[in-house]
Specification:
429 residues; alpha+beta; Phosphorylase Kinase, domain 1; two-stranded antiparallel sheet
Length: 429
């Protein structure tokens, strides 16, 4: 098979949907005439060890993992929702200022302080020191009256949607854990909204793990630090799922939302997509999908994979740790060899064949053991069937335990397990 990049072109409606889901690349598969005939007869064309193709009629054809992820995603989306529905989602009615104020009144006394917009301007010295910017707005360095430094996230006024603001305040105000970022206050004054967090000097995890990122050129994280970070994130999620008074599902675990303090202790942040639900409830109902493509669990956007539960965060965690291990995005079409495009598939094959991991900096035996544990645990976390993924409590146990009893999981191909009869609510993206 030959893989080649295609130039971008004008899209039809269906092409526009494809572009929405795979904005960074387009792929085309070319097969030989013999293989084409094989597929036409319902067979499966396989490359044998002697590098010759053989037609296997007994098996159903499967695409590569990368294309499989995209095609199944597109199929589920296109079958359930028209392009107009997807566009309408982004135009849905937003929460009004009165809605947010009503929530804050009905939520009862909050342990975090409410500040005025004048207070926000004072603590940031009129927004003098900008730390970062994103689609949500901008983050500024600030200082409270007690001398404590903070990061102030000022949400865009034009965004106008109070739902993520409400999610953030409601969920994070219920938490207190070393691996969860502390929300010190908030501001809502007319259309102006801001969130005040403890300042995390080292910023987000993504700055330190991707090769070629200019920001990590002077501080490449060692394997011992990466291993400790993976355990810290797992403990934070374990707390959200089992340690709070109520269960909190984050729905947006990714390197960008993991902040690092001065000692590189990880803290989970950005609860804008979080959902609070009773702990005794096995599956939750959702009216819209939430998450980031590349980390979002398959059952969140396609119910054929099962009901939505805390296992969605487990999947996102597994994808995050695999990016920490690989030092790259899990799906990278710019690599030299097609076999390396989808990192989980590539690293699984090396484990399966007993090869060296081929990762940078694995010089010490203890680092090799830590890396193997992170890989094996992550591959369990990204199983397509949520029932096959471990809980976060089990993840912590596996990471902190011995490598010897850990078994290599099934290959992390996307497949369609039986749909769950427990929760049949519609998911819309």
């Amino acid at each position: 098979m030959a893989w080649q990049h295609l130039p971008r072109k004008k899209h039809s409606d269906k092409d526009a949907l494809f572009s929405l889901l795979s904005a960074e690349f387009e792929l085309e598969v070319n097969v030989s005439e013999a293989c084409s005939s094989c597929y036409g007869g319902g067979g499966h064309c396989e490359l044998e060890q002697n590098e010759e193709f053989q037609c296997d009629i007994a098996k159903k054809a499967t695409s590569s993992v990368g294309i499989g992820v995209l095609m199944i995603t597109i199929y589920c989306f296109w079958r359930k929702f028209s392009l107009n529905k997807i566009i309408n989602f982004w135009k849905k009615e937003t929460l009004t200022h009165q809605d947010v104020e009503a929530f804050l009144r009905n939520h009862g006394p909050l342990v975090i302080r409410r500040y005025s917009y004048a207070d926000i301007k004072t603590m940031t010295k009129s927004f003098n020191d900008k730390l970062g910017q994103g689609g949500y707005g901008s983050v500024y360095k600030g200082k409270l009256r007690d001398g404590c430094f903070v990061a102030v996230k000022v949400l865009k006024e034009s965004k106008g949607n109070g739902e993520e603001f409400v999610n953030e305040v409601a969920s994070i105000s219920k938490t207190s854990h070393v691996n969860i970022v502390t929300l010190k206050g908030f501001c809502i004054e007319g259309s102006k909204r801001a969130l005040i967090y403890e300042l995390m000097p080292n910023g987000s995890l993504e700055k330190f793990i991707y090769k070629g990122n200019p920001s990590n050129s002077n501080h490449q994280l060692g394997w011992e630090t990466l291993y400790k970070i993976s355990i810290g994130i797992a403990r934070g999620l374990e707390y959200l799922h089992r340690g709070c008074n109520t269960q909190i599902l984050h729905f947006d675990i990714k390197p960008h939302n993991i902040l690092l303090d001065e000692n590189f202790c990880p803290k989970i942040s950005d609860f804008g997509l979080a959902k609070i639900c009773p702990r005794e409830k096995s599956f939750i109902s959702m009216v819209s999908a939430r998450g980031t493509i590349g980390y979002i669990a398959p059952e969140v956007f396609c119910r054929n994979f099962g009901g939505v539960s805390h296992k969605a965060d487990v999947y996102s965690y597994g994808m995050t740790v695999l990016e920490m291990v690989g030092g790259r995005k899990n799906f990278d079409a710019s690599v030299d060899f097609t076999s390396e495009i989808y990192f989980p598939h590539w690293i699984y094959k090396r484990l399966e064949l007993g090869k060296e991991l081929g990762l940078l900096g694995l010089l010490e035996e203890v680092d090799q053991e830590s890396a193997r544990k992170m890989i094996i645990v992550s591959l369990w976390c990204i199983q397509s069937d949520p029932l096959n993924r471990p809980s976060m409590s089990r993840v912590v146990d596996m990471l902190e335990g011995s490598l010897e009893p850990l078994k290599i999981p099934p290959k992390p191909f996307l497949c369609s397990p039986p749909s769950s009869p427990t929760d049949s609510s519609t998911i819309m993206v």
